[in-house]
């Protein structure tokens, strides 16, 4: 695992945007695995700026997002479809985009369809990940099987609380999500994980220096061939 510690979140986001842009320049037909959440907003803002400046194009790329809430249709203001349109898709030349459909009649069938679509596309080339304060990647909460495929996961209370800021009321935060599995993520050719801020300090330490354990799903990345972890000094404080 390559660990890059930057002085602040701004510089960490610069670094991740550049890693993505560099991959697209050398391999325009990359399958990008994308994440949502507060962490990624700065990354997408930089990629939009780079696109407008003619420094990157997504025209040859395909994207698959990690996850979506069960029950939310694509046009719901809190859906990850909406997040992606607002923060990236509406502003760049990326057209071949995929997310799980949270409003599918049968979420289990939809999860299996999504996994098969990723396999059919040849798996993910560069997978972008955030990190939950509890060590989750995607919505693979602690105790998730380390070889899981795309499926429905029940969100922990702490994850629902962390994401409640996007909803009007805590009760509105969905209880389930469709998420790529840990096994799905581990098939990616390359993984770039971004985390910053004091809230991630314990999860960062457990991911990098803890045992490989389902108690901290991100720790499985220790077993991946090509991982770059990009953090700021605040998130790095728990490292030995
Ligand atoms: C988002 C996702 C999650 C987030 C994580 C961190 O698609 O899969 O794993 O990356 O919860 O979220 P933020 O960035 O809001 O702290």
TrEMBL record:
Active-site residues, as the UniProt record annotates them: 67 (proton acceptor), 134 (for ring-opening step), 136 (proton acceptor), 141 (for ring-opening step)
Pathway per the UniProt entry: Amino-sugar metabolism; N-acetylneuraminate degradation; D-fructose 6-phosphate from N-acetylneuraminate: step 5/5
Keywords: Allosteric enzyme, Carbohydrate metabolism, Hydrolase
Xref: HAMAP family: GlcN6P_deamin (MF_01241)
Entry protein name: Glucosamine-6-phosphate deaminase
E.C. number(s) listed in UniProt: 3.5.99.6
Domain Glucosamine/galactosamine-6-phosphate isomerase residue range list: 9-227
Reaction catalysis annotation: alpha-D-glucosamine 6-phosphate + H2O = beta-D-fructose 6-phosphate + NH4(+)
Family the UniProt entry places it in: Belongs to the glucosamine/galactosamine-6-phosphate isomerase family. NagB subfamily.
GO molecular function, one term: glucosamine-6-phosphate deaminase activity
Site feature (Part of the allosteric site) residues: 144, 151, 153-154
Top-level division of the source organism's lineage: Bacteria
Activity regulation information from UniProt: Allosterically activated by N-acetylglucosamine 6-phosphate (GlcNAc6P).
Protein purpose: Catalyzes the reversible isomerization-deamination of glucosamine 6-phosphate (GlcN6P) to form fructose 6-phosphate (Fru6P) and ammonium ion.
Single GO biological process annotation from the record: glucosamine catabolic process
Organism whose genome encodes this protein: Neogemmobacter tilapiae
Pfam family, one: Glucosamine_iso
One GO CC annotation: cytoplasm
């Amino acid at each position: 695992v390559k660990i890059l510690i930057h002085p602040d979140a701004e510089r960490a986001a610069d670094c991740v945007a550049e890693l993505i842009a560099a991959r697209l320049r050398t391999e325009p037909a990359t399958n990008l695995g994308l994440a949502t959440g507060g962490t990624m907003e700065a990354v997408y803002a930089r990629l939009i700026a780079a696109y407008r400046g003619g420094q990157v194009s997504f025209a040859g790329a395909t994207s698959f997002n990690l996850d979506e809430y069960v029950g939310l249709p694509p046009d719901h203001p809190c859906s990850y479809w909406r997040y992606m349109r607002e923060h990236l898709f509406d502003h760049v030349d990326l057209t071949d985009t995929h997310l799980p459909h949270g409003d599918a009649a049968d979420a289990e069938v939809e999860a299996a369809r999504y996994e098969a679509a990723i396999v059919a596309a040849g798996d993910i080339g560069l997978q972008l990940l955030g990190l939950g304060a509890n060590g989750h990647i995607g919505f693979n909460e602690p105790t998730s099987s380390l070889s899981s495929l795309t499926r429905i996961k029940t969100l922990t209370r702490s994850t629902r609380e962390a994401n409640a800021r996007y909803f009007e009321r805590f009760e509105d935060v969905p209880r389930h999500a469709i998420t790529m599995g840990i096994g799905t993520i581990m098939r990616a050719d390359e993984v770039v994980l971004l985390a910053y801020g004091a809230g991630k300090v314990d999860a960062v330490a457990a991911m990098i220096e803890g045992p490989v354990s389902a108690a901290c799903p991100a720790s499985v990345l220790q077993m991946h061939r090509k991982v770059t972890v990009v953090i700021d000094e605040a998130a790095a404080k728990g490292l030995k």
